[in-house]
């Protein structure tokens, strides 16, 4: 189990989109990966949970979190192995940890907790809640956006993760992210 959650090291800069549901993470992460022509790591939980919903109309259970974490790390490690200067991740294990704490009364599997804290990224782009909430089969907290945003921000601060908050609509967020990533890449070379 531990090996499946361990992050593989590489020479690439790793960026994570981070924040509550329906704040534009997937849209922005795809735009950034396209802009830089680099690997994009999708959110494994979305595919996994949508499939579960479509087949049984069941929502996420605590038992789903470790398979989700394993799937996420497999996608990320595959992207790192392909090489390149940059990897854009739509999520990471710290997101899964935050959701586990929020939905399951603070409960987090020890192995998930360990690797959510140990795995490292160069920058987190924390998306603010000033985008319209869009309902879908998996989203369920439209009235708790501010509380969830604060949970995500507190996690970044607690674990001393480098982050910036992105606010505004798609274009300003994209421009701000590109400027920050360009500076980060320049500083690494």
TrEMBL record:
What positions does the domain NadR/Ttd14 AAA occupy? 14-169
Q: Report the superkingdom from the record.
A: Bacteria
Name the InterPro entries on file.
NAD_biosynth-regulator (IPR052735), NadR/Ttd14_AAA_dom (IPR038727), P-loop_NTPase (IPR027417)
Q: Which Gene3D superfamilies match?
A: P-loop containing nucleotide triphosphate hydrolases
Q: Which residues cross the membrane?
A: none
What are the boundaries of the signal sequence? Answer: none
Annotated Pfam families: AAA_28 (PF13521)
Query: What protein name is recorded for this chain?
Result: AAA family ATPase
Q: Which organism is it from?
A: Aquimarina hainanensis
């Amino acid at each position: 189990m531990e090996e499946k959650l361990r992050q593989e090291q590489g020479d690439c800069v790793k960026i994570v989109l981070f924040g509550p549901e329906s704040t534009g993470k997937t849209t922005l992460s795809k735009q950034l990966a396209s802009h830089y022509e680099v690997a994009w790591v999708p959110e494994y939980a979305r595919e996994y949970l949508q499939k579960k919903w479509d087949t049984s109309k069941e929502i996420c259970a605590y038992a789903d979190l470790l398979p989700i974490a394993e799937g996420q790390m497999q996608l990320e490690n595959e992207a790192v192995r392909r090489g390149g200067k940059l990897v854009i991740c739509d999520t990471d294990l710290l997101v899964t940890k935050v959701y586990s704490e929020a939905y399951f009364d603070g409960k987090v599997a020890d192995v998930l907790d360990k690797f959510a804290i140990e795995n490292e990224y160069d920058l987190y782009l924390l998306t603010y809640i000033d985008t319209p909430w869009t309902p879908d089969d998996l989203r369920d907290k439209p009235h708790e956006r501010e509380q969830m945003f604060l949970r995500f921000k507190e996690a970044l601060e607690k674990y001393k993760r480098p982050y910036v908050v992105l606010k505004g609509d798609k274009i300003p967020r994209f421009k701000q992210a590109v400027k920050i990533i360009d500076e980060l890449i320049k500083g690494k070379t």
